Amino acid sequence: MTEGNYDQARGRALLTMMERIRAFEQQAELAALRDKLVLGAIHLSIGQEAVAAGVMTHLTAADYLLSTHRGHGHCLAKGAAPDSMMKELLGRQGGNCGGKGGSMHIADFDVGMLGANGVVGANITIAAGAAHGIKLLGGDEIVVCFFGDGAANRGPFLEGLNWAGVFDLPILFVCEDNRYSATTFTSAMTAGKGAAERARALGLATSEVDGNDADAVADSAGEIVSRIRATRAPAFLLARTYRQKGHTHADPAGYRPAGEADAMIAGDDPIARLRERLVAAGLAESELQAIRAAALAEMSAALDSARAAPWPPDDSVFDDVQDIGSPAKGAAY
Amino acid sequence: MTEGNYDQARGRALLTMMERIRAFEQQAELAALRDKLVLGAIHLSIGQEAVAAGVMTHLTAADYLLSTHRGHGHCLAKGAAPDSMMKELLGRQGGNCGGKGGSMHIADFDVGMLGANGVVGANITIAAGAAHGIKLLGGDEIVVCFFGDGAANRGPFLEGLNWAGVFDLPILFVCEDNRYSATTFTSAMTAGKGAAERARALGLATSEVDGNDADAVADSAGEIVSRIRATRAPAFLLARTYRQKGHTHADPAGYRPAGEADAMIAGDDPIARLRERLVAAGLAESELQAIRAAALAEMSAALDSARAAPWPPDDSVFDDVQDIGSPAKGAAY
Amino acid sequence: MHRMTYAEAARLAVAEAMRADPRVWCLGEDLGRGGVFKQYAGLVEEFGPDRISDAPISEAAIMGAAFGAAMVGTRPLVEMRFSDFALCATDELVNQIAKARFMFGGQSRAPLVIRKPLGMWRSSAAQHSQSLESWYVHVPGLVVCCPATPQDNYAMMHAAIACDDPVVYLEHKDLWALEGEVDRGEAFAFGKARRRHAGDDVTIVSWSNTANLAVEAAEMLAAEGLGAEVLDLRSLWPWDKAAVLESVGRSGRLLVAHEAVQVGGFGAEVLASIAETLPVKARRLGAPRALIAYAPNLEDQLRVTAPMIAAAAAALAKDEP
Amino acid sequence: MHRMTYAEAARLAVAEAMRADPRVWCLGEDLGRGGVFKQYAGLVEEFGPDRISDAPISEAAIMGAAFGAAMVGTRPLVEMRFSDFALCATDELVNQIAKARFMFGGQSRAPLVIRKPLGMWRSSAAQHSQSLESWYVHVPGLVVCCPATPQDNYAMMHAAIACDDPVVYLEHKDLWALEGEVDRGEAFAFGKARRRHAGDDVTIVSWSNTANLAVEAAEMLAAEGLGAEVLDLRSLWPWDKAAVLESVGRSGRLLVAHEAVQVGGFGAEVLASIAETLPVKARRLGAPRALIAYAPNLEDQLRVTAPMIAAAAAALAKDEP
Ligand SMILES: Cc1ncc(C[n+]2csc(CCOP(=O)(O)OP(=O)(O)O)c2C)c(N)n1
Ligand SMILES: Cc1ncc(C[n+]2csc(CCOP(=O)(O)OP(=O)(O)O)c2C)c(N)n1
Ligand SMILES: [Mg+2]
Ligand SMILES: [Mg+2]
Q: Rounded to a whole number, what is the distance in angstroms from the first to the last CA of chain B?
């Protein structure tokens, strides 16, 4: 994509989504650290917004998404409402999962978001199966499955990608390589060249992209998604990015090389890079400010309404376990 | 290896082992089908003997072997005594595992054979761990881990090979590609180019060999094993071979393409090929006959002594469960 | 009424369900050749390889993919081959399938049937013989079935496929060839035990293959003039506590017999539940906490047999220690 | 005597065992940074990265590799991070580690300690809160430990590392910061319960965090003049049936309390074993067969609390229904 024919409208749309994701997570972080309103762990994707925005911009609500423990951005980009998401993070009534799942199990089936997952890599085989189901039902939707660089060391990576290849399924696997597996350098625990090389060996059409360049992500995801829609065959995209925060909101990440995070934040922040490009493409600073201000307003409103929301009804813990032999409220049976 | 400087002594040794493996399995098959003395399932490696013989000829009893459900050949080639192996297949006293394991769990720790395995692919991570243990203890042994083409579709293949690479362990993974996963063509259930390509992507030094050419297997395994002894780094060998019999002794294998097995038996049998080469290299037919006759005599004697052996003592089922809280004989506690 | 084997009964139910509902499909290793126990014989010819799908040796992916396919509207029947191999897919079953509907606040269902043949089967040794039904009963979100007869394997399979919850369906490997009459009109209701033998002197609760042995035992006891009531629970979750209470109310004596290891087996749950509710003389008869061996005589040391059940029930009925 | 936390007590035992025996090593994710709960803080500095080894996110390989390393003569301590993730390594633990010694006729041992932090921990939701101890008690070949105090986490960790059997070592995530006195001279014997409170009116059997709640409950009851005896089993396999029988022989009343789901929980085994042996009024108090939710008020619906234990014990003691 040369600056010459730069698609300003798309750039603005990408920036808007990325600012919304960041604002949402900044509010969530405040709710956790400052207000102590988020009791469980949350995993922030600050610094990785370009991947979620750039991929999801090519999906419709009918397409399916399987996400990870670090899924707020994926969920928002797929179209979920921040209001019910924030309520879920706070465990309140009105949350997407009625307060039962929290951040790590957030899901919004109305927009095709089939769930974050608390088990690294577990969503890979599930996503392959969703694509398998689409094929059996003769649907024309596609599936996108996100996971991290660390998930490429789990068995389901091999089993799920092999499955998608063997049954020739309409699915895009997106590996967000943010360099870290919790407090560990993923590279230190990974043999060979990593996830993309493994995907190639499993026969998947594989691409790699600078995951902090929103336009580059959108360009290559756009190509790949239209190819999947046309051929119904699986593909793999590795997006190189960086986790600007700790593993969880509570992790100071003191194990990172001195200066690494500062340098990445100063020099390779996906939002800053996109804003620069938009300015170069003629967008007014004021408009950029307006986008950011709107995002902040939207997400602090979401936090306010979540804060004000009641707890879910106590008895709801006994609902939606199962139809047959479900627990009687308050009894061991 | 050119015919010119053909190593006749090694060839004779390989043939001797291969004839012994085949004779053992033919006797085991008779014991199962004709005599109904083998009650559990046995998986015959008839047609695959060159791989076991060619690899194991480079190991000492101090080196470790992890094997599969199709492990009789591996076990014999590692140096186990056919007599106690046959007793184990018949579930008799004097069997390697006291009749507790049978064919699928045969093991002989005295010769470094750490067990067959009833779970496909499960031995891969265990073998990596054995090599990890050697490294921690500062030993100079190496580990060899056998598995089939079907095992390359299980998670432990990725996790175990990655482990060996990350911790840089002295282990050789040998994939015996006999084309089948039980009644299924492995190729139909495998995406990409298969096991070797996956091993390369996982960063392992990878070779491929005609698994029905005993000398070729011995040559490449020889190189690889000495490299592992020198560098203590992992390697992978894919050996292409053929399962001449059904998946188990009871499987007529009617699902195979008409004529496939006959053609392989007639044209690509590893024992026939090695015998031809030895004749060309000047070995007398009579000597070949003598080798075969000796193998047959040894293995039918093994079957006779197994047939004559008593059952294990009933109470032995309560032994070797665990030291702490082991079951009282005859009681639920 | 039709006479058929336990394997044929389930196959018939699967075929009927697949004819009635195009969303139903089966996946597992070697299904295209009828499956390892021929439970699927002939199905690929009728329904084709997409709906009777082979699979790589990837239990985790079989289970995980079936779950994903269920979430988008299909109704998969998962074949795990041996229940022992299903342990390779424990995260998928217990952390994902059993919990998804709840974690997602009711947004999803997981209408899956997970077939896991269990139990001792001549000389299959420790990795191919386990009975872990009590594990699955302990996991909220799962329904657990243990059919013992062709009739129940037919009716319960239909009920399992029709159920919107994930159903762990545990057939016994030693029963595939068992023949019996099947009434296709008889429906199965989860949590309803079947009284396989009537009697007022002692209540014997069992399931799976051991329920058949318990019926044999009851006949031996009848010959001695002792009335043993045999309740085949059929489904372990939910299980028919009411029927057991009613019977024990009459007999005052309870024997729970099963093939699984006694320590931590489902027999403990049955006995404990009843003992909490009413005074009862109760015993369990399960396997020692030992491992299943290959040699037939060693394997036999761990079996719960009809004579053992009869002896234990008689001791209870006669108030012997 | 030294005052320390539950986490520090185990860390001290691990460090002492590693100093005494060079074959002992630890492996798991993030151990080089002290582990996710800092149970390993400082150990990599003393023992280096080979003996305090990081691992890829590969639970199956962590468990399988530890087993292989054990078979060739090392003594691994496996860290599974959350017991829920250990379900990704169920085949390795149950089909391989628990069975190897037996299947191979005694040729091998698997001296492993498998640490699996379990239990509810503020808002960790369904995939990070399970208590599945009853599963492991049901598996022959395994030893099962559930320490409840710093003293026991010190002494039991030493015993587990010294044991030649595979030991499933289940620490409770809510206890890491619990402080207490540790007597390094006090040894632990598997299968020996600790009487945490004496009394003759009712016997309360428990383990892990719930044993601490049971002590609170006993103190509440003492204030009401009711004598509750609290037996903390500490190891669930083997478990101290003799101590429970002795106490119930005095009290005639048994309450088994645990955090896990009541249906199929280890409480059923304890209650059933005692009810088989002597007449007793017995009850269990466990979680409903429901899933653990994220919202704190929902999570609290599933908790077994000290007041609940006190009320249930009092009802038993006063012969209330
Ligand atoms: C099977 C499993 N093992 C361990 C964990 C604990 N854990 C949660 S996130 C995480 C790191 C994952 O790294 P990566 O896949 O790169 O994703 P990222 O956190 O970097 O987004 C770990 C180890 C888990 N949730 N599941
Ligand atoms: C995890 C697991 N799944 C399924 C099986 C059943 N099974 C036993 S052998 C086998 C085929 C294995 O094929 P391959 O790895 O190529 O070895 P081969 O039998 O060809 O030697 C299968 C599916 C098993 N033992 N373990
Ligand atoms: Mg990462
Ligand atoms: Mg094969």
A: 62
Nearest to A157 by CA among A173, A179, A144, A142: A173
Query: What is the number of CB-based contacts under 8 A between chain A and chain C?
Result: 157
Q: What's the confidence (pLDDT) of residue B333?
A: 43
Taking every pair of Cα atoms in chain B, the longest distance, rounded to a whole number of angstroms, is 68
- Using a pLDDT cut of 90, give the percent of chain B over it: 96
Tally Cβ neighbours within 10 Å of residue D216.
Answer: 16
State the ipTM, two decimals.
0.98
- A191 contact residues in B (CB cutoff 8 A): 161-166, 202-204
CA C206 to chain centre: 11
Catalytic site positions of D: 128
Query: Which residues of B, range 92-111, sit inside 8 Å of C by Cβ?
Result: 92, 97, 99-102, 104-105
Q: Nearest-CA neighbor of B73 among B94, B57, B97, B91?
A: B57
Among A151, A103, A101, residue whose Cα is nearest residue A126: A151
Query: Is the minimum CB–CB distance between B325 and chain D shorter than 8 Å?
Result: yes
Mutate to test the interface with D, among C84, C104, C138 (most CBs of D within 10 A): C138
CB B248 within 8 A of CB B46: no
| DSSP per-residue letters across A82-106 | HHHHHHHHTT-TTSTTTTSS-GGG-
Q: What distance in Å separates the CA atoms of residue D257 and residue D238, rounded to the nearest whole number?
A: 18
Is the CA virtual torsion D104, D106, D110, D116 positive or negative? positive
| Span from the CA of B151 to the centroid of ligand 2 (angstroms) | 7
- DSSP bridge pairs for B64: B143
Atom nearest to B121 CA in ligand 2: 1
- Nearest-CA distance C264 → chain D (Å): 5
Nearest residue of C to residue A325, measured between CA atoms: C238
CB C293 within 8 A of CB B100: yes
Start-to-end CA span in chain A (Å) = 62
Residue bearing the CA closest to ligand 2, atom 10: B182
From the CB of residue B38, how many other CB atoms can be counted at a distance below 10 Å?
22
Q: CA angle, B128 as apex, B122 and B131 as ends, to 5°?
A: 140
Strands C194-197 and C24-27: unpaired
Residue A248 Cα to ligand 1 middle (Å): 11
B324 pLDDT higher than 60:
yes
Q: Is any atom of ligand 2 closer than 6 Å to the C-beta of B181?
A: yes
In the numeric block, which tokens belong to residue B117? 């395995």
- For residue D298, give the amino acid letter: L
DSSP label of D175? G
Strands D2-5 and D179-182: antiparallel
Q: Which residues is A238 bridged to in the sheet? A: A175, A208
* Residue B223 CB coordination number (10 Å): 14
pLDDT tens sequence across A153-192: 999 999 999 999 999 999 999 999 999 999 999 999 999 9
Residue closest to C264 by CA, chosen among D3, D294, D94: D94
Rounded distance, CA C146 to CA C233, Å? 8
Quick one: pLDDT band at residue D131, thresholds 50, 70, 90? very high
Q: Which residue has the tokens 């429906």?
A: C187
Q: Is the distance from CB of A224 to CB of A235 less than 8 angstroms?
A: yes
pTM of the model: 0.98
Q: How confident is the model at residue A328 (pLDDT cuts 50, 70, 90)?
A: confident
* Contact assignment for D143 to B324 by CB distance below 8 Å: yes
CB atoms within 10 A of CB B179: 18
Confidence at residue C265, expressed as pLDDT on a 0 to 100 scale: 98
pLDDT, tens digit, 9 for 90 and up, residues A6-22: 999 999 999 999 999 99
Residue A158 contacts residue A202 (beta carbons within 8 Å): yes
**Which residues of chain C does B41 touch, with a Cβ-Cβ cutoff of 8 Å?**
124
Helix pair A270-280, A49-56: axis angle to 10 deg? 60
* Any ligand 1 atom below 6 A from CB of D59: yes
